[in-house]
Each structure stands twice: as C-alpha cells, then as structure tokens.
Amino acid sequence: MSATLIGFIVYLVLVMVAGVITYRMTKTQEDFLLAGRKLNVWVATFSERASGESAWLLLGLPAAAATVGLVETWTALGCVTGIALAWWFVADGLRRETEALDALTLPEYFARRFGAHANAIRFVATAIIIFFYSFYLAAQFNGAGTVLRQTFDIPTFWGIVIGAVIIVLYTMMGGFIAVAWTDVVQAVIMIGTLVILPAVGLYELAQRDPSGLQAVGATTTSWTGGATGLAAFAAIVSGLSWGFGYAGQPHTITRFMAIGDPKTIRVGRRVAVAWAVPAFGGSLVIGLVGARLYDVGSLADAEQLMPMMALDLLPSWLAGIFISGAVAAMMSTADSQLLVGTSAFAEDVCRRSLGWELTPAQLVALSRFVTLLLGLGGFLLAVTSGELIFALVSYAWSGLGSSFGPAVLFTLHWRRTTGPGVLAGMLTGALVTVTWSNLPINALVHARLVSFILACVAIVIVSRWTQSEPDSAGGR
User: Quick check: 62 and 290 in contact, CB under 8 A?
Assistant: First the structure.
C-alpha cells in the first residue's frame, strides 16, 4: 500500500471517528442544526471558510486560471472582498437577530421576521435551497470522483460513491457538531495545500524554465483574458461578481448563527480574511504554474491539475495529505449543504409549516433521514450530469447568492423591508438565474451580477408598494 493511500485513508478514518464521537453529543434539533449556538469563534470561522470553499477552489479555480489565465484574478479578488463584506455586514446582525427570534435556519429567520407571510417564505426558501443545492452537491461528488480517479485510478463512478457515502454518513451521525469540528481539520489541510503546493510549483518552474510565467503567452497572462473594450470590462465585472454570493449562501452564514459569543465576531473577521487571501492566491498560482508545467488542453483536463501536481512534485505521504485537502474541500461544503437542506425541509416545512408534532428524538431522526435522501439526490445528479465542477458551482452560487443575499442584507439594514419584498427578491434571484444562465448574453454579462441586482430592485419596489402591511416594520 502506497504512502499516498495510507495518508488518505488515515484522514477518512479521522473524519468518521469525529462523526461517531459527536453522535452522542447531538440530542436536540438545536444541537443537530446549530451546535446549540455554542461554537467557539475560531471553530466557527474555520468551519465557515472550509464550507464556503469547495472542490471549486482546489480544482475548478486552478483549472480556470490554467486555461484562461490572469483574468481569474478578478474572481479571486471578488471572493475575498465578498468574504470580508459578509463578515462585516451580515455576521453580527444575523447572529443576534436569529437568537432573539429563536430561529434555527435562514428560512425560519425570514418567516419570524415577517410573520404574516411565514408559510410562503418557508416553502419558497426551501424549494430554492433544495433545487440549487442539488447542483452544488453534484459538483462536490464529481470532485471526489475526479480526485480519486487521478490519484488512485479509481473509476469516476466509484469515486463519487465513496465520497457520497462518507459525507452522508458522518453528517447523519453528528449533525452540525460533526460538520463544524471536521471543518476545522479540513480548513487547515486546505490552507496547507494552497500555500505549500504553489510554492513548490513555483520552485519547480524556476528550475525547469527560468523565464517562468513570462512564456505562458499573451492571452494567459492578460488581466482581461485577451479581451478589449466592453468585453474586457465585462470580464472584470463577471469575476468580481462572485463576491455578491457570500451574503446569501445558507451553508456559510449559518456559521454566523452558531457563534457562541457575538462579541467575538470581530476576531472571526480577521481570521476569515487572513485565511482567504493566501488560499485564493495559492489557487491561482496552482493554475498558472500548472499550465506551464503540464499540457492541459481543456478545462476538463485542467480540473485534474492539483492532484497531478501533488503527486508529481511532492513526497508521496505529503501528496496523500494534500489530496485529502481536495477531498476535504468537497466534504466540508457538501456536509454543510446537506445540513442546510435537511434543516430547511425537516425544521421549516415539516415542523413549522405542516405542524408535525414530534419529540426531539423523532425530529433528529427525521433530519437524519432527510439528509440521506438529499445525499442520494445529489449522487444521482452527479453520476448523470456531464457538467464540470466550475460550471455547476457557478450556477448554484449565482442562484443561492441572488436569492438570499439581497434578502439578508435588506432585512438586516433597511427597516422598510417587507415580507412580500423578501419573497419577491428570493423569487427574482432564483428565476433570473435559471433563465439568464441559458441565454447567450450570459457569456458577456453573467447571471451572478444580473440576478443579484434585479433581486435588490424587486425587494425595494415591492417593499415600498406593501409598506402598509402589518409586518412592514420587519417585526422590530
């Protein structure tokens, strides 16, 4: 058995052990969904960062950088900016208000803020979450298949099976507690991968070709992907628009809700940005350096770049750890998404809207069953979809970010927001994403930007139109 495989197996065993240990700690629905709102800020921050980034950061973004070049710098800059803004403008307010309203989920927060429209908000929010998370989960499972095929020559189908089974099992067992603590390990492995592997890659490139990145080519090293004029501006804005999504990703902003002491959020802000800057920079360098070291003719080939570099440039035991980092990125996002999808259905629909009377033990059992079903749905989409990781994540990120980001920001910072306004914003963000993504103009002006802006417009217009409603003051 190779050292690479041993390192990978040790990591998977540790993850499963965490699930078993935290199984005994999960006794109530609040434990399963928010770890009892008692998370240390460091744990919550590392968990937010690990769940916020995924197979996309380890595989998708390096692939995009390898194939189109420095234009992807705008994507990285947009993401880092979005992370900072979410921590500054969402974290503290959402943590305090969800506790005051005793809301365990994002849909329930909106429902309690705008009580007259509670059931409509719950159903619409849950439908949006489950729809877009199916694509997001498929991307993570596809990432597992890609990594295991490249590393251990395991057929893609069985790689997807392995990743899906492990993620679903430990999420079912330990809920949020298991997810948060395994995220800490995963975030550390991810940042190690994204700092050390690029440094080794740069050293290797300097040894092989002293001219380094200068020889990559005009298009690859262009900050606009070789485009000029309006197309160049659109390329920059498209990359920066990734930042809009961070205020509305339920699986990341849930971490804000779980922080034990709201006063420690200022520490979390600094830690989150300190993690994000080298992580996104390293991801770009992996792509740019990998394009010079290896022949990656297409985006599909380039999505195997990170494990290829690790196996080629690092000792086998270290490559095993860093390849675990890629799987960690997928797991930390997929488990969080499973948990959010579970909470939306079990807590918001079954318990709140349908009024099912369940004991705490029965509610946790229902949540675990829903987790299994959602995992199965993501698995089926993963094995039947031909989409690449980058495309799947981009689509889901746009839909979730535009559906919930404007709703969260306006609810926290504009007192005139109404329930119908929030509903209009969520529906607009989701529907514009679905339609715009299938139009040719999406290649010039991405749905991430258009859907977010139109969702904001919808909230303002409908809120002003419905100011006279009883809940127009937002429940304050």
Answer: yes
Buried b (16+ CB within 10 A) or exposed e, 331-341: bbbbbbbbbbb
Q: Please tell me the least confidently modeled range out of 224-238, 329-343, 433-447.
A: 329-343
The token pair at 261 is 């002491």
What CATH number is attached to the domain comprising 298? 1.20.1730.10
400 vs 384: CA distance, rounded Å: 22
| Identity of the amino acid at 333 | T
Domain count, the chain: 1
With 70 as the cut, is the pLDDT of residue 261 above it? yes
What is the full DSSP assignment across 165-176? HHHHHHHHHHHH
Beta-ladder partners of 259: 39
Phi, psi of 416 (to 5 degrees): -85, 5
Task: Judge whether 368 and 176 are in contact, CB under 8 Å.
Answer: no
Cα 299 from Cα 200, distance rounded (Å): 23
Two tokens at 112? 């309690």
Quote the tokens at residue 113. 């803020």
The residue with tokens 């979450």 is 129
Alpha carbon distance 378, 137 (integer Å) = 5
Q: What are phi and psi of 101, to 5 degrees?
A: -95, 0
Number of Cβ within 10 Å of residue 353's Cβ equals 18
The token pair that represents 34 in the structure block: 């928010």
Question: Which comes out higher in pLDDT, residue 205 or 7?
Answer: 205
416 domain residue, yes or no: no
254 is a domain residue? no
Contact 150, 304 (CB under 8 A): yes
Angle (CA) 274 248 125, round 5° = 150
**Domain interval for residue 199:** 3-224+261-390
Residue 443, classified by CB atoms within 10 Å of its CB into exposed (0-12), middle (13-18) or buried (19+), is exposed
Tokens representing 77 are: 């800059």
Residue 209 lies in a domain: yes
Does 153 have pLDDT greater than 70?
Answer: yes
- Enumerate the H helices of 35-117 as residue ranges: 41-52, 55, 61-68, 73-89, 91-100, 106-113
CA–CA separation, 425 vs 420, rounded Å?
9
Taken in order 296, 301, 306, 312, is the CA torsion positive or negative?
Answer: negative
In percent, the amount of the chain with pLDDT more than 90 equals 27
- pTM for the complete prediction? 0.82
Q: Does residue 167 fall inside a structural domain? A: yes
Q: How far does Cα 158 stand from its chain's mean position? A: 24
